[in-house]
Structure formats: structure tokens, C-alpha cells
Amino acid sequence: MGGDGILKKAGAIIAAVAAVILVVFIAWDSIFNKAATKEFFAMDTVISAEVKGKDSENCIAEIEKCVSELDGILSRHSEASEISLLNKNSGGTISNKTAEFFRLLIDVSKKSGGAFDFTLGAVSDLWGFGKKPSVPDEAELRKAVSECGYEKVSLSGNKLVFSSGVIDFGAAGKGIALDEIRGILEKSSAKEAVVSVGGSVLIYGKKNIKVGIRDPYGNAGRSIATLTLSDACISTSGSYERCFEENGKSYHHILDPETGYPVENGLVSVTVVSESGALSDALSTACFVLGPEKGAALAKKYGCDAVFITESKQIYATDGIFSKIEITDNSYTLMPYEN
Ligand code: AMP
Ligand code: MG
Q: What is the average pLDDT across 39-61?
């Protein structure tokens, strides 16, 4: 065989080996990085899950089961839920897990000076958010406000007691779900995942990905800025959610616990980034009520970062996230905090 023949044969062997490696790689990738996605409705919102890994489909099924179980604990609107029973009986003995959720809510209520208050259920109901919203009667609203207050709730071990008010996990339930979902992913062979539960998103196993901040004045798919994040929970509270107009004035669902009226402080949305889903969600609501200055101080107490968007399209971002934000709609301006 001449030199040319040997070269041709060697070339053919190399090509065959490369083809085998490619086939093995593709097969390996399709088994161990198998992607599965699903969108479903639970917790009064749309949930979308995208998981990559060997067991991604099972993992998504477990996520769906976990969210529906959690809904069965936290939902105020399902009569048999643990929270509904607590509301009916002004307390009761709760599971270790539920006690942990309460401890966090009590802590955020205290540290926010009551701007966050998880006992406003009856006040929210008067506004009819999620049903047929309308401005409530002033006297009724005042009465409901006087009856609520997180300081009326006491938790000792697993025993929860409160004298009045209606417990509502609306401000933190979606973030709590993200923590439960992360627990499932950690036990599975999932390599990476993105799960969104309403306005709360979990980024798992992914590095430096861009997450959009929703356009407060546009549709849900449009963003006005991105945050570059790795392994984090991000929650946004916005005045564009659950809102309505009456006599030319608009009203939204984030309430000032002192008055029972929607917060009017010039903000349209607040996004909080945290390792904890529960904290990101609770703090996004709390920081919305507190505004950019006091809200940033609260986020800092928990080692979290926050982005505040005002009606005049100014964006305030805390130090830890300032360099990770990129404005994609130039009608918005990134503002520095004046220290
Ligand atoms: P989020 O979308 O996470 O900001 O949660 C808003 C929901 O939390 C509302 O729909 C109410 O159920 C509840 N909520 C409203 N105002 C407050 C408040 N000041 N503190 C705690 N929960 C609130
Ligand atoms: Mg929230």
C-alpha cells in the first residue's frame, strides 16, 4: 500500500471514531441532559417549569405534586387548607414546616415595622381582588383594618394563636413554593432548571443568565431591563397585578396596613433577589410598601438586593445588584442612591 493509501485509511478510521464519539455524546446528552418543560395552573397563577437532567420528566411531575400539596396548606380559598382551618379557629397546632413559614412572615412583619402584614386577608377580601373588585365602604374598611395586625398573632413552638385578623399567605406563598421546588431539584439528578410561579422565579444550576424585569406598563412578555444572575430566586411585586379602575382612579392589591388602601408612593414595581424564595417574595411586597429608601434598608438587613421602579420610569437598584442590571428600554433611567 502506498503512502496515499495509508493516509486515506487513517483518515477513514479517524472519521469513523469521531462519528462514534459524536453518536455516544449525543446519546449521553439526550439521556443525562434531557430537557422537560411544563406549564400548569396552581396557587391561583400560571406555573412554568423547565428542567434539564436524567430524570427531568419525573422531576416535573414531583414539582406539580408539591405545588398542589402546598396550595392545600396555604390557600385561603380552599376550605380544607391548614390556613383556612387556622382562620376559622383563630389558631391551632401547626406542622413544623408551617411553623417555619410563620416564623419567617412574623420576622419580616417585625423588621418592616408592620409595612408587611400577613393578617390583611379580610381587608383584601373587601376590595374583592381576584373576584369582582370595587372600592369598599370606608367604615367597613376601617373596621377590618382595626381588626388585623401581625402583632395579634403569637407562635409558641407549634401552637399558633391570634385574636382577630385573617391570615393571608398571598405575599409569600409563591416564593415558599420555590424553596420547596429547590428541595425537590436538589434530591433529584436535575442539572439545571428555571421554574416560575407567578411573579417569582427560581434559577437552579445556571450561571450568569439574564432574567428580565417585566415592563410595568406593557404585556407580561415584555421586559424593560435584565438582571444577570446565577442560582437565585427573584420575585417581583407590581401595581399592574390585580388592579382595576373606578371613577377614573386605579387601585391595586398591595395594601398599606395602616389604612387598608392600595399603597401610593410612586412605585410601580419592586424586584427582590435572594437565595431564599420565601424571602424574595415577602420582601418584594414589603419593599413595595416601604418605598425605595426604607425598602433598600430592609433588603440589606436580610442580605438581599432590590430593584425599585417608579411611575416616572426611574430605576433604583441596591449596591449588590447595580452592576448586574442592564436597561433594555431607554425610556427608563438607572438612578444611583444618594448615600
Ligand atoms: P405580591 O404579589 O407578592 O406582592 O403579594 C401581594 C398579595 O399579598 C396581595 O394580593 C395580598 O394578598 C397580600 N398583601 C397585600 N398587601 C400586603 C401587605 N402590606 N403585607 C402583606 N401582604 C399583603
Ligand atoms: Mg411578594
A: 94
Cβ contacts of 304 within 8 Å, gap of 6 or more: 272, 273, 274, 279, 280, 283
The span from the CA of 309 to the CA of 311, in Å, is 7
Q: Is the predicted pLDDT of residue 271 greater than 90, yes or no? A: yes
Q: What is the DSSP string of 288-339?
A: HHHHHHHHHHHHHHTT-EEEEEETTSEEEE-HHHHTTEEESSTTSEEE----
Pocket test for ligand 1, best of 127, 141, 150, 254 (most atoms within 8 A of CB): 254
Rounded to whole angstroms, how far apart are CA atoms 294 and 200?
A: 22
Q: Please write the tens of the pLDDT for every residue from 213-230.
A: 999 999 888 999 999 999
Give me the sign of the Cα torsion angle 39, 44, 45, 51: negative
Quick one: which atom of ligand 1 is closest to the CA of 256? 19
125: CA distance to ligand 2 center in Å? 17
- What is the residue whose three cell numbers read 439528578? 189
Q: Residue 26: its pLDDT value, please? A: 59
How far apart, in whole angstroms, are the C-alpha atoms of residue 295 and residue 237?
Answer: 13
Q: Given ligand 1 and candidates 265, 271, 285, which is best to mutate, with the most ligand atoms within 8 Å of its CB?
A: 285
Distance, in Å, from the CA atom of 273 to the CA atom of 213, rounded to the nearest integer, reads 12
Residue 30 confidence class, pLDDT cut points 50, 70, 90:
low
pLDDT at residue 5 in the model: 79
* 196-214 average pLDDT score: 95
pLDDT at 10: 80
Spatial distance between the Cα atoms of 102 and 317, rounded to a whole number of angstroms:
29
Single-letter code of the amino acid located at 266: G
- 34 or 219, higher pLDDT: 219
- 274 close to 283: Cβ distance less than 8 angstroms: yes
* 3-state secondary structure at position 131: coil
